[in-house]
Amino acid sequence: ETGVTQTPRHLVMGMTNKKSLKCEQHLGHNAMYWYKQSAKKPLELMFVYNFKEQTENNSVPSRFSPECPNSSHLFLHLHTLQPEDSALYLCASSQDSKRRDAEAFFGQGTRLTVV
Amino acid sequence: KQEVTQIPAALSVPEGENLVLNCSFTDSAIYNLQWFRQDPGKGLTSLLLIQSSQREQTSGRLNASLDKSSGRSTLYIAASQPGDSATYLCAVRLLPYSGGGADGLTFGKGTHLIIQP
Description:
The complex is a heterodimer.
Chain A: E1 4-7, E2 10-13, E3 18-25, E4 31-37, E5 44-50, E6 53-57, E7 64-70, E8 73-79, E9 87-94, E10 105-106, E11 110-114
Parallel strand pairs in A: 2-11
Antiparallel strand pairs in A: 1-3, 3-8, 4-5, 4-9, 5-6, 7-8, 9-10, 9-11
Chain B: E1 4-7, E2 10-14, E3 19-25, E4 30-38, E5 44-51, E6 56-59, E7 62-67, E8 72-77, E9 86-94, E10 105-107, E11 111-116
Parallel strand pairs in B: 2-11
Antiparallel strand pairs in B: 1-3, 3-8, 4-5, 4-9, 6-7, 7-8, 9-10, 9-11
């Protein structure tokens, strides 16, 4: 059982919908991350929050909007997505992202399908 | 830009064999390297973390080594079992403020491992 919980596990949305993905960690970590996993491609880092401050936006389109209200919760707000945005979206957490021993722990992911 | 390559892309071996998975990275300015396994449709499970100052880490039947200067890591699995079947992912974390690096992990595409009963 992972200490990182993602909801929902599966999501189907139309291109004009607005939805949000939620991630919660119970590990006392201070850094949280969003990754995208598409078929045949390596996991891609999307956003990083360290102590609630966004430290990385890896050239992600503005139709993806992250929110980190506290160190335990992370959201990914979605609007006007494209079919190519269909993927597995993974949340992760670690101690301070700039620590040498920062081990990342992942949630089970949200399988997103855009129709 | 950091690139991570994993070889082989797929591997199928009989149960009981010892095997080695390979990972290479282009930028040696790493903070640490982490090995994960991923079962189909699931999230990632952390297996081993090696800090840049370390040479290897062991957990049960797993042993991971790191040669930072040559940009290589190996994951050794002893006495393989059908339950080891999964995709194994290697990821590196760059030094903070290393210029052009992300403040997170850079992943390889993985090795898809099948252990035949």
